[in-house]
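Escalation from tier 1.

The customer reports that the assembly of two entities below gives different structure tokens on two consecutive runs. Tier 1 could not reproduce it. I'm attaching the input and our single run for tier 2 to review.
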Amino acid sequence: MDKFQAYVEANRERFLVELQDFCRQPSIAAQNVGMREMADKVLARLDKLGADARLVEVGEGAPVVYAEIGSGPRTLMIYDHYDVQPAEPLDLWESGPWEAAIRDGKVFARGVADNKGNLVNRIQAVEAYLATIGPLPLRIKFVVEGEEEIGSAHLPQFVRENRALLEGVDGCLWEFGGKDINERPQLWCGLKGDVYVELHAHGAKRDLHSAYAAIVGDPAWRLTWALATLKDAEDRILIDDFMSQVRPPTAAEVEALTTIPFDEEKERTALGIPAFINDRTGVDLVKKYLYEPTCTICGLYSGYIGQGSKTVLPNHAFAKIDFRLVPNLSPDLVVDLLKKHLARRGFDDIQVTLVETGLEVARSPLDSTVVCAAVEAAKAVYPNEPIVYPTSAGSGPMYPLCQALGIPAVSAGCGWHDSRGHAPNESIRIVDYFEGMLFIRELIDRFAAM
Amino acid sequence: MDKFQAYVEANRERFLVELQDFCRQPSIAAQNVGMREMADKVLARLDKLGADARLVEVGEGAPVVYAEIGSGPRTLMIYDHYDVQPAEPLDLWESGPWEAAIRDGKVFARGVADNKGNLVNRIQAVEAYLATIGPLPLRIKFVVEGEEEIGSAHLPQFVRENRALLEGVDGCLWEFGGKDINERPQLWCGLKGDVYVELHAHGAKRDLHSAYAAIVGDPAWRLTWALATLKDAEDRILIDDFMSQVRPPTAAEVEALTTIPFDEEKERTALGIPAFINDRTGVDLVKKYLYEPTCTICGLYSGYIGQGSKTVLPNHAFAKIDFRLVPNLSPDLVVDLLKKHLARRGFDDIQVTLVETGLEVARSPLDSTVVCAAVEAAKAVYPNEPIVYPTSAGSGPMYPLCQALGIPAVSAGCGWHDSRGHAPNESIRIVDYFEGMLFIRELIDRFAAM
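Tier 1 run:
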């Protein structure tokens, strides 16, 4: 065991307690809960690390925590976020979402996988580096925002207003990652775009006795009919002029998929589903996962949803819809197409509200230095070969923070295949957590040396 | 002012306090809240009235309160229920649903219009009759059940097991009624049938990050697609073999509608809607209201419905659906047709759950004695002519309790056009409440004398 590993081992208890402490502070961007408290906590930790850390206010948004440490010819940006998803539905958590309970070698908490685990892990890894190896061989710029889970609305403004801080960055370590169902570390070189809207239908002034439904319109029906025009049971998105905008993957992009193992049987069993959509398998399945857009109903509400019956004619219904985007779909375009599609079908009465400003698609070159350094670091640390994905099926502000500035990015982290991001009983495994610190050490050395 | 009126006036305060007391005891059948407490309160009040009152247990159901008082050649059954609808959505109430606040000459409470107002009003009217006029000229049988708002599941069993109690009944005063938007008293001689189901769709074992939606099915979509096959945007119910079962109204039934005034303009304004369904007007509108079946989404739920965004792929979605039935649709038939319809379209995965056992359609002859007595009583008490409806658009257990036993029934009560039954801010007007007691006095006298 080298000095770095020995230090991590010696401080294991303190590192875990610190992670729990971060997880116990709720920081739910969607509900504006605990954001300032969490930003202060991150700031204090980076300060304690010895970094030149500050809170950067961006309009009315949650502040960005920015910090610099180290020096050298190369500069690595580390992007994380201190906000988390809402914890609902609360009754499905086996231990409280803000309890950060440890059991079965795991830490369970809302946000522990996405992304407080990586956030704390990376800071602690730098602490261990400084304590055992010496000064950093490169400059690290931490950018930790507080609105990732609500679409990073203010990050483009942060970039515009703080361009000088982001000068000279050679590559970026993105916020998430982990091991797949066969324990192979995953590296992600791109993200889908995203836009999140609400559709609202309204009826009478107030809820009515359902006997009225013979002559007074039901907004829950109205919403249902409008939704049914957006996607069909074969999962085809039917929004006018939507699919025709999608640039099909190039031959090289399809070729890149063939190196990606995807254990369909294990995944299906873990998810508890009889088949993937349209019975897709093999490269076709992975292609759909990574290269096709989505239109997902994330939430649906109208009327009475309690126990038993209430014979009510509701006066309001809404759906929350998430679109994941691929080239050449942009958030603005999708909202525009959606509104036109509904209007053309007589659904002008359905209100379309933008919940998040939206995120553009981002892809980094697979041969960029930061990707190569991450592959080497992963090979050095993990027993299994890393898998390099041209893009993730998820989203984030990689376009404004990296691609628009010409900065290649790669995403890697300490999650596992059952981390349950955005869902109840979110967790990371403690063994992955400490292995992740070794990966950060290797990434620092290799990226500095390349 | 005669002695009856003087007594009511002298006891006005006490009568209102008693009504408030009944409203302050929650008795939500759907949530099994306060049922036994409420039954005991009704029992005690009927006992205090001098009636021979008892609780009749019926299987696992809420007990029926049964009471007899008076004697004479005629017997009038008075049907009420002591259960109420759930109070949700709570945040839309201006005063608490269990507060029974009095303001602007009204009592506001969950259940005050449907049907505790009439329940207490009728008992108090009998008290006033006995105190001022003398012994009753007929026998009254009170049947007060506790499951009306959940489909009166145990009432048929009550009838089967207590047939002797219901012997010799000549007519029934049903639970509800009131004045329309132009202050005309309404009398109802029939009810639509009703059946209430839930449709459930399931996805993966648990909620997932919405990035998975490219390859894992979304139950909210599945439910949407299934629902969209049930009814179209022209309000046509599309369930196979459903509409073909509907017996069209006879010429006489349509003729009866022409005497029913319906102030469309006022109703539309009060409801805050631009038009009735399919822009129906005139007799066509009333015909649809009273003689056509409905298929109403009363509740809709999936995933995240809180503030802002949560990018989640839900693993469960459900809808609560209420069908109002006309001849010759029965609850069993409708559930059977619904299941077959879904299965035929490949929606076998959608679970159909019966929430209420269902209610058959009921219609009483318009020339029956109890209807004639009610018309005369209304004419004697109210300044405006009563309107006689062949049927209500609402539902209730009139078939098992009355029609199956050959007992004609008529419904009348002390509600008003904005009583908001089943909705927030339910109310009755105090002036209607005390006028309603005069109506009961007249009905007793006229029904006994006819």
